[in-house]
Amino acid sequence: MCKKALSDFGGSLPRPVHFMFDEFANIGRLPNMENMIAVVRSRNISMSLILQSMSQLKSQYKDDATTIIDCCDTTLFLGGKSNETNKEISEAIGKQTVSILTHNESRGTMSSSTRTWNRQERDLIQAAEVGKLDRTRAIVLISGTDPLLDEKFDIETHERWPQVYPGHD
């Protein structure tokens, strides 16, 4: 499709094309994926890579896994048990600065007290908290924006759900 976009349409397809790769890490290693994912956007092509954990991607693509992840503008985390994935999500969300007031008091013949303000960084959400994320919630990370903790949509409440699964109202 990239060749077609270049040869027939001056670089960009006339209609957007979106590939959804469910269980991406289990379909085998796609040749030149790390290069392809970096250039398809300008060709009016987008990709969604769906994984159970980041380690699956790393086992298939080794060092190229980082390039593939870096080329993805949006990450939707629906929950998971992988400590490595939870840590990466926590790091991607970032840190906050917290102020800490410490008050020390000594008593005796020469009593004294001190108050100290300190600033520290803390993960907005720690990896262990990511792992305990309520299964009705999702974390959305979009490049250039703040992270978002949102409610998952319950597909059974959609008006067309009975058409998808008749008899399961």
Describe the structure.
The protein is elongated. Helix 2 packs parallel to helix 4. A hairpin with a 5-residue loop joins strand 6 and strand 7 (148-151). The chain is of the alpha+beta class and 169 residues long. It has helices at residues 2-9, 33-39, 54-61, 64-70, 83-93, 127-131, 161-164; strands at residues 17-21, 45-49, 74-77, 95-106, 112-123, 137-142, 148-151. It contains seven helices and seven strands. The longest helix has 11 residues, at 83-93. 30% of the residues lie in helices and 28% in strands. The strands form three sheets. The chain has a three-stranded antiparallel beta sheet with strand order 3-6-7, with helices on one face.
What features would you highlight for this structure?
two-stranded parallel ribbon, 7 helices, 169 residues, alpha+beta, 30% helix, elongated
